[in-house]
Amino acid sequence: MSAEVYAVIEFRDVSGWRAWKIAEAPGPRWDLPIDQDYDLFAILANVRNECRYQGDRFDSISDRRGFPEDISAEARDEGCTGDHSATWMTLSEILAFDWTRAVNKYGYLNGIEFERWERNRRWAPIPDVYHWDVTGADERVVSEAEMRESLARARTSSPVEQDLSNIYCRISWQEGYAQCAAQLWTVVLPRMLRLGNQYGFDNVRLVMNFQS
After folding, report:
1. CA 171, CA 29: separation in Å to the nearest integer?
2. What is the pTM of this model?
3. What single string gives the DSSP state of each residue in 72-92?
4. How far is it, in rounded angstroms, from Cα 184 to Cα 133?
């Protein structure tokens, strides 16, 4: 089952917490335009973190804290229109999080994809394409050593592509937390930082919940 996030930025001034309206949106809109991204959801809110068969679990900034008691009416009723896993975090918490760490990820490559990845992995350790699982009746999974042996044999035989397209091996690589949370840097933080410079980093927070 898929999940979508509904996230609103709030800031606190002398009148209390207020929701920040997206100025570029036509009409009254409060929720940020964050695309579906389970890595980001896991890092921010520990959502979709428990079913990560394609990688290790992330450490999370928050863990479904619920809505803050002093949430603004706009954030609660207009922006955060999901139905589960409500949480929040301040700009200070986001900036204090250790973004330098990395997570192990896993996937399957067929022989053609593996050969390309092996050739380029020194400069591009993250595969540009991979499969979460192998389910075809004619597909088989081998070890990396067996895959290399199959590649060596395929170089002296034909048809090469047909032979290698049905053989898969499981690989692992590392991705940085910062890289996995790309939308945080492009969609969320630029807006939060502008408010933080005006009101203080502890007086700006991200409030969210999710819809499945």
Report:
1. 43
2. 0.85
3. -HIIIIII---SEEEEEEEHH
4. 28
